[in-house]
Amino acid sequence: xxxxxxxxxxxxxxxxxxxxxxxxxxxxxxxxxxxxxxxxxxxxxxxxxxxxxxxxxxxxxxxxxxxxxxxxxxxxxxxxxxxxxxxxxxxxxxxxxxxxxxxxxxxxxxxxxxxxxxxxxxxxxxxxxxxxxxxxxxxxxxx
Length: 143
Prior knowledge:
It is built from 2 helices and no strands. The chain is an all-alpha fold. The protein is rod-shaped and about 135 Å long. The protein starts with 13 loop residues before the first helix and ends with a helix.
């Protein structure tokens, strides 16, 4: 029997104990280093993830703003399209039917009649001026 196996136990020499202890120390240093690297890389990844979440939220907000603007622009296009299609080959004039028959019941109606008559006279004057200018322009072109 060897001296190492007295009492049925493995008794190691001091050299073996030193080797085992140094291996344990190396392994524990490696484990601590791995844990430190892992924790720092996990921390870096979490920070990067938080930054990406902020960037994603910003991009989503921009997308929502663009969608709102496109909806508004689409509505404006629809309005202008309707206006254009409704005016094709049509005259731009308002039709107001005026009659000379009036029921005189108040002063306001009389004032309104006087205003309408004044507008009519003014319109006739403008029409006459336009005709005279047109005639003068034709004479100037002939000469």
